[in-house]
Design brief:
The structure is a single chain. This protein is α+β, with helices and mostly antiparallel strands and 187 residues long. The chain has a domain at 79-175: Sandwich (Immunoglobulin-like). It contains five helices and seven strands, in the order ααααβββββββα. The protein has helices spanning 3-11, 19-47, 57-62, 64-77, 176-181, and strands at 80-87, 93-101, 112-119, 127-134, 137-143, 149-158, 161-172. The radius of gyration is 31 Å and the shape is elongated. The termini are far apart.
């Protein structure tokens, strides 16, 4: 026993560890703070709707030769696609219009056209749709998850021909004055 402990015992007081407990408390506090930061980071990483992983990215990487072959087939076909995305007045839906033209500028009729559309801000929320043919092109309705820039991935099949395209498209919304007048003019 140390001299200080002997005096404390003789006077009837119980010796305390003082500094040692403060260090233990500091260490436990730092570990607790670290656990809180890790828990917050995991929560934010898993609950963020704006983050998205490219579906089947590993399989697509392994089969990149098919992508190259498809690009060659697209050039051979000579088809071109133009996509526009126009919001509805309520802002909950958008109409995807696609014009599909052959190498001579003529519309490509009777094709089975599918699209995957998603906002660049919400790439984890993808809409897969089959477009229906209308005069001069194809169209479908997609839910709007965010305004701004969208990515549209198209696949068009007609007979043995398959055409693919990826484009960035700006979502245009009706102006408030036009929606109130009911003119239908879109910006």
């Amino acid at each position: 026993m140390t001299e200080a402990n002997k005096r404390a015992t003789a006077s009837g007081t119980i010796p305390t560890m003082g500094r040692g407990r403060r260090w233990i408390g500091l260490i436990i506090g730092l570990i607790g703070m670290n656990m809180g930061i890790v828990a917050t980071t995991v929560y934010l990483a898993t609950s963020d709707r704006s983050a998205g992983v490219e579906p089947d990215y590993y399989a697509r990487a392994l089969n990149y030769d098919r992508v190259i072959l498809q690009r060659t087939a697209n050039r051979r076909l000579g088809w071109k696609s133009t996509a526009t995305l126009t919001g509805t007045p309520d802002g909950k839906l958008a109409v995807l219009h696609v014009q599909l033209k052959d190498g001579e500028g003529n519309p490509v009729p009777a094709a089975l056209v599918r699209a995957v559309a998603f906002s660049s801000l919400r790439s984890g929320e993808r809409s897969s749709v089959q477009l229906r043919e209308f005069a001069g092109g194809y169209e479908a309705t997609v839910p709007v998850s965010a305004s701004g820039q969208w990515r549209v991935q198209l696949t068009a099949k007609r007979g043995a021909d398959t055409f693919t395209s990826e484009q960035d498209v700006a979502l245009t919304m009706p102006t408030a004055s036009n929606a109130a007048r009911g003119t239908g003019d879109l910006r």
